[in-house]
Automatic annotation (TrEMBL):
Organism lineage: Eukaryota, Metazoa, Chordata, Craniata, Vertebrata
Full protein name: Maestro
Signal peptide per UniProt: none
Gene that encodes the chain: MRO
Sequence ranges assigned to domain Maestro/Maestro-like HEAT-repeats in this UniProt record: 52-244
Taxonomic superkingdom: Eukaryota
Cross-referenced SUPFAM superfamilies: ARM repeat
InterPro entries: ARM-like, ARM-type_fold, HEAT_Maestro, Maestro_heat-like_prot
Gene Ontology terms: cellular component: cytoplasm
Length: 248
């Protein structure tokens, strides 16, 4: 099986050894040159940059991992075709960063880069990475760090737009388990997080729809009472949206 498809959560990812043997700049000089914009490609060939970032993304130094994730985000923004060529390796690196055991900065940068990458590839061919990303994004929705919460809501909402038939049942279960978090953070202490939550709530609302089953309950009785009660009090416009789209 292709080594690039091995799960990075289980073992370190092998970095391709086909990098041309050129004079390597030091870590400081290399990253000081990169402005993380279009000028990235003016410093070194994209292939060389990618190999360097892939190596640094697994460095024991958290700051180097953080900068590597930021660099991958810049490449995904400015040269998406180059990143798509190594998509499975990049996804492995980003999922690994998403579960970084020590650095909130690495986790945050990984989420931001994943959001960029998913937008570029329209969520296609994620495979089982979809599960890894969904589970961690959902966990981070309640994190104490405002930046992590914000990026988690943005990423989770984006996942809702890219759910394929294969993962629809799984994602539906995750959204229903996330309902309390969605309701809570509509009133988040950070206005940006609250806004991101509201956008994500709309994106996830179709997955909150209860399956219609034959019963003697009235339509009103089958509605989610907790959801209706909280939305009617704090966000009547969202409740109206759910009713208009026959989600409730």
């Amino acid at each position: 099986r292709d080594q690039t498809q091995r799960r990075i959560l289980g073992q370190p990812l092998p970095i391709p050894t086909t990098q041309p043997k050129k004079k390597r700049t030091s870590m400081v000089s290399f990253f000081s040159k990169i402005s993380w914009t279009v000028s990235l490609q003016k410093q070194e060939p994209p292939k060389n940059v990618f190999f360097t970032l892939a190596e640094r993304a697994q460095d024991p130094n958290a700051k180097k991992r953080h900068m590597a994730m930021r660099g991958l985000g810049a490449m995904a923004s400015e040269t998406p075709d180059k990143v798509k060529k190594y998509k499975k390796i990049v996804l492995d690196l980003l999922v690994h960063g998403l579960y970084d055991p020590v650095s909130a900065d690495v986790i945050h940068e990984s989420m931001k880069t994943l959001t960029i990458l998913l937008g570029k590839i329209q969520g296609k061919s994620l495979g089982s990475f979809f599960i890894d990303i969904t589970l961690q994004a959902r966990t981070l929705l309640d994190d104490e760090n405002d930046n992590l919460r914000y990026s988690a809501f943005v990423l989770f909402g984006q996942l809702a737009d890219f759910v394929g038939r294969k993962w629809k049942k799984f994602f539906t279960s995750q959204v229903k388990q996330t309902q309390d978090s969605l309701l809570t953070h509509l009133q988040d202490r950070n206005p940006q997080v609250a806004t991101a939550c509201k956008t994500t709530f709309r994106a996830c609302s179709p997955y909150l729809k209860e399956r219609k089953e034959y019963s003697f309950q009235s339509e009103a009785d089958q509605r989610n009472p907790k959801l209706c009660r909280q939305l009617s009090h704090y966000h009547p416009e969202l409740l109206q949206f759910l009713y208009a789209n026959r989600i409730l």
